[in-house]
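Hey,
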Amino acid sequence: YSRAVTAQLDKLKNSKKVGFLEKQNLRFHEKKMYTLPSDPLWEDQWSLHNTELNGNRNDINVQPVWLQGITGKGVTIGIVDDGVQYNHPDLSQNYDENASYDFV
């Protein structure tokens, strides 16, 4: 800081009217490139990208999350279903039998 800025900061720090003072630092974020999934059935997955009904966005709004670089990698989820096809190619490599229970 310059002397003038330092003097102003000191003045503010010592003021009874100032409850909190903190220097703000610039932070830079490198945006990751986002591409649509290569799933050949992507166009049929209306729950992931649907803008057709009444002009409203009627999906789970996942694309903005993907734009932030959040993919869910390393996350374990539980699904309550009456029949998960655990040997399906999309699931078989990530299916955890110990985290599953057959309610049927």
